[in-house]
Amino acid sequence: MSSLGAIDASGVLAVIMGGGRGTRLFPLTAERSKPAVPLAGKYRLVDIPISNCINSSIRRIFLLTQFNSASLHRHVRQSYRFDRFSRGFVEIMAAEQTPTSSSWYEGTADAVRKNLSHLRALDFDYVLILSGDQLYRMDYRDLLLHHVASGAEVSVSTTLVGRAEAPSFGVMQVDPGMRIVRFEEKPREPELLDSLRLDPESLRRLELPEDQEWYLASMGIYLFNRSALEELLDNDYTDFGKHIIPMAIERKRVFAYAFKGYWEDIGTIRSFFKANLDLTADLPRFNFFDMAAPIYSRPRALPASKVNSAAIDHAVIADGCILNRCAVAYSVIGLRTVAREGARIHRCVVMGADYYESRESIEKNAQAGRPPIGVGRNCRVENAIVDKNARIGDNCILSPEGKPENFDHELYYIRDGILILPKNAVIPHNTAI
Predict the structure, then answer these.
(1) 32-85, pLDDT tens digit by residue?
(2) What is the 3-state secondary structure (H, E, C) of the chain?
(3) Is the peptide bond prior to 246 cis by the omega test (within 30 degrees of 0)?
């Protein structure tokens, strides 16, 4: 994060998009919205853009939600409270019926359009549109400074990708002043890709090696002048990436801002799993330990984690865990996780539990043949995501090895070759998957 003091971000409203169904993250989104999915043991996905806003001195934040939003509302309400003398807020705007509209949000642009009346009640110059399912650290004042200096009416934050990754993104072509002159959604034809790659002059200007092919891919982060946003939303178009930005390129001064830091879209099971496991590396690509720009979340009154003769190798362990004579390697262990004697957890994202189970509850569930919450004795769990409050019995073997890339079972799911135990899953004793 940069420490810009010359640019004033007080005129910026931030709008975080959190209303999609999150189908690519199913079953993690079966009972929660996508921005509420747990991340890195103790956070939620929505904590990333909100923290970036706070660290960028942007304190007026709207969060647009629609599907399975109860837990997201609860998390935001308990996490982000600005003092009464501040203008700051994190306000949740759920889809609602009005005298002029009875439909839900039909896309990102439609969601903002339906909330323009709430935005207009405030004094602002710019609107920053953000996604709720990305992992990155950005000082948005850098984007604002570039926006103002270039005379842009719309700015699109872009990440630099290679030729292999470019077909998965919307790719921008820019002139020497970084004004966007062309936009192609997920270009795949070799000739089209050739025409979109950055030219040698642009590579030198961005200080990139000239012996590689680079492309400017949209991050789904947009900065609009107030008047430009209102004009561009005066229609029935529903999506920013598909409709509004291509139209803006034809009508407005639209510039690209090249972001060079780590950025990962974690909207799929594979990318979510990969981003979490990368946090266990000696030098992870995203640094949660950067206190110059911390990632905020809900404060919890939990005890420190307790490790009893356990073998721990490259693991992230959140608060309140109890690890008894087990082995944990290359895994993220979430809040209140209990792992019992002989358990082996390898390459897993264990989200933990919402509560500690009482002795009475353990005995009652045992009578019904259900194991206690946590990982049972002598279990082996590999290449898996274990959602919250899962009950894994003793002597279980849980791994996607030898299974299809995508598979649905009454006890578990497999997505992108990763085993997923859904929230509140019950895996009986001696189960082998």
Answers:
(1) 988 999 999 999 999 999 999 999 999 999 999 877 778 888 999 999 988 877
(2) CCCCCCCCCCCEEEEEEECCCCHHHCCCCCCCCHHHCEECCCEECCHHHHHHHHHCCCCEEEEEECCCCHHHHHHHHHHCCCCCCCCCEEEEEECCCECCECCCCCCHHHHHHCCHHHHHCCCCCEEEEEECCEEECCCHHHHHHHHHHHCCCEEEEEEEECCCCHHHCEEEEECCCCEEEEEEECCCCHHHHHHHCCCHHHHHHCCCCCCCCCEEEEEEEEEEEHHHHHHHCCCCCCCHHHHHHHHHHHHCCEEEEEECCCEEECCCHHHHHHHHHHCCCCCCCCCCCCCCCCCCCCCCCCCCCEEECCEEEEEEECCCCEEECCEEEEEEECCCCEECCCCEEEEEEECCCCCCCCHHHHHHHHHCCCCCCEECCCCEEEEEEECCCCEECCCCEECCCCCCCCEECCCCEEECCEEEECCCCEECCCCEC
(3) no
Confidence at residue 227, expressed as pLDDT on a 0 to 100 scale: 97
Bridge partners, 187 (sequence order): none
Domains of the chain with CATH codes: 12-278 (3.90.550.10), 306-427 (2.160.10.10)
Rounded to whole angstroms, how far apart are CA atoms 195 and 215? 10
User: pLDDT tens for residues 183-214?
Assistant: 999 999 999 999 999 999 999 999 998 888 99
Alpha carbons 224 and 155: distance in angstroms, whole number: 7
pTM of this prediction? 0.94
